[in-house]
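Hello again, I could really use a second opinion on something today. My current little project is about how a certain protein chain folds up. You're getting the sequence in one-letter code plus the fold written as tokens. Here's the protein in full, and shout if anything looks odd to you:
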Amino acid sequence: MRTHRPVAVKALKLPPSVSRELRVSFVDGFEREAQILARLRHEAIVEVLDLSEAPDADGVMWMVLEWVEGARFDHGGRRASRVWSEATARDEAAARGTRQLLARRSLRRRR
């Protein structure tokens, strides 16, 4: 399916030399990251659109994320102060979302 809208793709590709145990750990962590991001809603957190795994490649996964306009970090297009304030806003939003999820779990356990 083509949506004709720009997206960002975050990929996880592990080399064949990685142990089975470590591979499972990385894949589980990548899936958890996508699931947590998918539950959070904040202007400083990108939306997860999809999570996929290559059927024939062990440990190859990708997360499709909403596209956010801006300069690439490696091109030096942003000022350090702006990058820092954006990172701080993202961290605060992620912490707030984590607190909300933990509070909900705590309330469920008390019932």
User: Anything to note?
Assistant: Residues 80-110 form the longest helix (31 residues). The radius of gyration is 17 Å. The CA atoms of residues 20 and 59 lie 10 Å apart. Residues 71-111 form one domain.
